[in-house]
Design a protein that fits this description.
The protein is α+β, with helices and mostly antiparallel strands. It is built from 10 helices and 13 strands.
C-alpha cells in the first residue's frame, strides 16, 4: 500500500495516531488518569495528591541554533519549557530527569555551561535534577527533559473544561519571542554573509542588540509562569481549562476549544503586546499581532474562568482578559481593530510536520 508522508497529516494528526495506538496500554495502570492529549500525563499514587509528568525534546537546528544561543541560556530554557507544561496543569514541579546526546566536537566546558543553565533554572523553580542519561550524537546536540510535578486533585486543571460564556485570559505579553527570533536570525544572516564574502565580522557591523534585550530575552530565556500558579492557588481560583503557549495563541486556543467542544471569540485590541515588540515589528516591516497569534515559544498561560470570578483577577496586572468562550458552532474567531471577524482556522501556529 502507498505510504503517507507525515506532512500530509501534520504534527497533531500524528499525535492523534500515536495516542490511538497507546490507548490500549492505559488499561494496565488504572492509577494513570490521563495519558496523551494534555500538557502532562496524570498519575494518582494516593488520594491526597496527583502526579503530573511532561517531557520535551530540544533538537539542534529544529528548536535552537548554537550560532545564536548561548549554552547556558539553552540549559535554562530546556528546564523552563517543561516547567511551563507543569504550570499549565495548575501544578508545581518537583524533579527533573535530563538526557542529552552530545556531538563529539563538544568540550567538557560546553556541557558544563549547559548544565549551569539547567541548575540555575531548577533552583529558581524549586525543583531537583534527579538523574538522566548521556549519549554520543553523530549529528547535533539533543536535549530531553522530563519533569514530574504534583497538585491536589481539586486544583488540577486540564484543557477540556471551558464552557460557553466564560472569560478567556492570557498572562504576560505575547509576540516577544517571535520578535527575538527574527532579530537573531537577522544577525545570523549578516554574520554568514560576511563570512561568505571573506569580510571581517565584529561589533562594528553588528546592530546594538542592547536596545532589543527584552525581545531577545523572551526568545532565549523564557520564564515559566509558576508565579501565576501560586497566584491562582492563593486566590483559590481553579481555571476551567488551561494550556501554555508554546506554538502560538491561535493554535493553543484551538486546542482548548477542540477538547472542550466550544468556540471562542478573542479581540485584537485586548491581546497584550509590549511596546518593544511593536517597535521591532515596525522596524522589520512585520506584524506584531501575527507574531502573537502564531509565533509560539512564549510559555505564557492561556486559561478560562467563569465571569463571576473576574473580580478575583481584576487587580492582577499580569493577567489580561482577551475574549469569551462561545458555543461550538460559532467557530474560533478574532475580532480585529476594525470590528471584522477573522477565522483563526486559517491562522495557526507552529507545526513540526506542517507543510
Amino acid at each position: 500500500m502507498p505510504y503517507k508522508a507525515i506532512r500530509e497529516i501534520g504534527e497533531f494528526g500524528l499525535i492523534d495516531k500515536i495516542a490511538a495506538l497507546a490507548e490500549p496500554t492505559l488499561q494496565a495502570v488504572p492509577e494513570l488518569l490521563k495519558g496523551i492529549g494534555d500538557d502532562c500525563a496524570i498519575y494518582q499514587p494516593s488520594g491526597k495528591l496527583l502526579q503530573v509528568a511532561t517531557t520535551d525534546l530540544l533538537v539542534d537546528q529544529v528548536h535552537f541554533d548554537l550560532l545564536t544561543t548561548p549554552l547556558k541560556h539553552l540549559g535554562s530554557k530546556a528546564i523552563s519549557v517543561n516547567v511551563s507544561d507543569i504550570c499549565a496543569m495548575n501544578a508545581f514541579p518537583r524533579f527533573a530527569l535530563v538526557s542529552i546526546a552530545i556531538p563529539p566536537s563538544f568540550s567538557t566546558e560546553m556541557v558544563e555551561e549547559l548544565y549551569k543553565g539547567m541548575s540555575h533554572a531548577a533552583k529558581e523553580y524549586g525543583l531537583a535534577i534527579a538523574g538522566g542519561d548521556t549519549s554520543a550524537s553523530r549529528s547535533g546536540l539533543i536535549i530531553s527533559v522530563t519533569i514530574m510535578g504534583e497538585v491536589e486533585p481539586e486544583k488540577l486543571t486540564k484543557r477540556n473544561g471551558a464552557k460557553p460564556g466564560e472569560l478567556i485570559c492570557v498572562t504576560g505579553s505575547l509576540g516577544g519571542a517571535a520578535a527575538g527570533l527574527k532579530l537573531l536570525m537577522r544577525e545570523k544572516a549578516i554574520m554568514l554573509d560576511h563570512f561568505e564574502n571573506n569580510e571581517p565580522y565584529n561589533k562594528s557591523v553588528m546592530a546594538d542588540l542592547k536596545e532589543y534585550s527584552e525581545a531577545i530575552q523572551c526568545q532565549l530565556l523564557p520564564t515559566a509562569r509558576l508565579d501565576i500558579v501560586r497566584f491562582l492557588h492563593s486566590r483559590n481560583i481553579r481555571p476551567t481549562s488551561m494550556i501554555d503557549i508554546s506554538d502560538g495563541l491561535s493554535s493553543e486556543l484551538h486546542h482548548i476549544c477542540r477538547q472542550s467542544n466550544t468556540g471562542a471569540l478573542i479581540h485584537e485590541s485586548r491581546i497584550p503586546i509590549s511596546a518593544s515588540t511593536r517597535r521591532v515589528a515596525d522596524e522589520l516591516q512585520d506584524d506584531a499581532i501575527t507574531w502573537a497569534l502564531t509565533g509560539g515559544e512564549e510559555y505564557q498561560l492561556l486559561f478560562t474562568i467563569p465571569k463571576e470570578e473576574y473580580e478575583l483577577i481584576d487587580d492582577y496586572k499580569e493577567i489580561s482578559v482577551i475574549g469569551e468562550v462561545t458555543d461550538p458552532d460559532s467557530g474560533v474567531f478574532l475580532s480585529d481593530i476594525y470590528g471584522m471577524r477573522i477565522d483563526l482556522a486559517s491562522i495557526r501556529g507552529f507545526d513540526h510536520f506542517g507543510r
